[in-house]
Fold this sequence. Notes:
This protein has helices spanning 23-36, 38-53. It is built from 2 helices and no strands. The protein is elongated. The chain is 55% helix and 0% strand. The chain is mainly alpha-helical.
Amino acid sequence: MAVTDMVENAYNFEGRRYDVGDKQFFLEATVEYALRRLELREKFVAYLKDVVRCF
């Protein structure tokens, strides 16, 4: 297959991109997801505050 025969697919998006194959980015994505969800936020913030106090 010649290079000129190859198809390129791309998508431009707005917002933050997470590489969840990387442990740090996976954790960041999970925390930000929980903080954005109204049904999770209150208890999750309390949990984070408690955990951070321990360190």
